[in-house]
Amino acid sequence: MHINLTGHHVEITPSLRDYVQSKFQRLLQRADNVINVNVVLSVNKLEQKADATIQLRGTTLYANMVHEDMYAAIDGLIDRVDRQLTKYKEKSGSHNRGEGAALKAQLNATT
After folding, report:
1. Residue among 50, 54, 64 at smallest CA distance from 2
2. Paired strand residues for 66
3. Domain that includes residue 86, residue range
4. What CATH number should be reported for the domain holding residue 24?
5. Global pTM value
6. Distance between CA atoms of 59 and 17, rounded to whole angstroms?
């Protein structure tokens, strides 16, 4: 998994790059089917904005965060992506496989 980091009206310093990569590496260790991660950091007057697009097998997650501080925007972005990943994993794992078979066996036992 590779993290593409780009800056729009902001210079991506080595410390900023390391911060983003460490946060996303820790977050994406729990996700097993990540294809690609794109992160865009931008500045518009007093707003620091962080956007992330994460391609998973079967879906794409998008999150953004605006804050006065870039590091705080990245932290908020990580929180939002974490919430989306948790929701996606719960949703994909909650299919009750075998429920139909159990219901059919129960109906056959009563007749």
Report:
1. 54
2. 49
3. 3-110
4. 3.30.160.100
5. 0.78
6. 26
Instruction: Give the model confidence (pLDDT) of 3-56 as tens digits.
Output: 899 999 999 999 999 999 999 888 888 787 888 999 999 999 889 999 999 998
Cα gap 47→39, rounded to integer Å: 16
Question: What CA–CA distance (Å, rounded) separates 40 from 6?
Answer: 5
Give the total number of structural domains in the chain. Answer: 1
Which residues make Cβ contacts (< 8 Å) with residue 65, sequence separation at least 6? 49, 50, 73, 74, 76, 77, 80
- Sheet with 34-44, strands from edge to edge, namely 3-8, 34-44, 47-56, 59-67
**Nearest CA-CA partner of 70 in 108, 42, 104, 110:** 42
